[in-house]
Amino acid sequence: MEFKSKFIQSLNNEYFFIRDSNNKEIAYLSIVTDKDLDDLEFIQKITDWRKRFANCFFTVFEPKPERTRAWMERSLLPNPDRVLCKIFTTDMNLVGHVGIINHDSFVEYDYFIKGEKVDIKDFSLIVGIRFLKWVCEVSGINVIRAFVRSDNQKIIDFVQRTGFRLGERHPLKRNYLDPDEYTLEVDEDIINPEVYMIEIEMNADELHV
Predict the structure, then answer these.
(1) What gap in Å lies between CA 50 and CA 146, rounded to an integer?
(2) Residues 6+ apart with CB under 8 A from 101
(3) What are the C-alpha distances in Å from 104 to residues 81, 143, 145?
(4) 17 to each of 30, 71, 110, how far by Cα in Å?
(5) How far apart are alpha carbons 131 and 43 in whole angstroms?
(6) In this structure, are residues 29 and 86 in contact, taking their beta carbons and an 8 Å threshold?
(7) How do beta strands 143-149 and 165-178 pair?
(8) pLDDT tens series, the chain, 209 aa
């Protein structure tokens, strides 16, 4: 069975329920599917979040709804090894998204964005850990890796609280595609770069709320 199909099959009425340490439901996850291509509110929200949290990404550009939709249609949805989930509070308010990518020997923790305020202590931490535990249980893969920018201390602090270990640092250079669009690419020959890519890693048995 394909990676993405395993997660769709594991859902309960199309949702994965996030519970805190007291077993209280605090959030629901829903996998992004073809139906979301017509959800203009969702597309606008993730476009706005992409713009607001640009310093989380290794590609920087001016986000627009039509570009977001095209990315979903051409890149995200056809890929059987990539899963993106919408994050809802228990009153069904869409507050963010979180994803995972299958690399067979490990899973890559994809971008986790909480775009709206939630008045629950450690909400993001609990959602992130429960999501990753679900991913490892469903996929049978125990190694989790990700890549973060060294200029985003908030994300570094968050992944360390989650349990990730910081690994190797790789210097990044800007590769401009347009005057307002560029990618950050590893170039080991750069001396004193503006920013590094930091590798992070943890195992499934290290996930604790």
Answers:
(1) 18
(2) 81, 82, 83, 107, 108, 110
(3) 9, 10, 12
(4) 9, 27, 19
(5) 22
(6) yes
(7) unpaired
(8) 899 999 999 998 899 999 999 999 999 999 999 999 999 999 999 999 999 999 899 999 999 999 999 999 999 999 999 999 999 999 999 999 999 999 999 999 998 999 999 999 999 999 999 999 999 999 999 999 999 999 999 999 999 999 999 999 999 999 998 888 999 999 999 999 999 999 999 999 999 87
Q: Which CATH architecture does the domain made up of 3-206 adopt?
A: 3-Layer(aba) Sandwich (3.40)
pTM over the 0.90 mark? yes
What number of residues does the chain have? 209
Domain ranges within the chain, ordered by starting residue: 3-206
Distance between CA atoms of residues 42 and 131, nearest Å: 20
- Distance between CA 125 and CA 97 in Å, rounded? 13
Residue 39 burial class via C-beta count within 10 angstroms: exposed 0-12, middle 13-18, buried 19 and up: middle
> Which residues make beta-bridge pairs with 114?
96
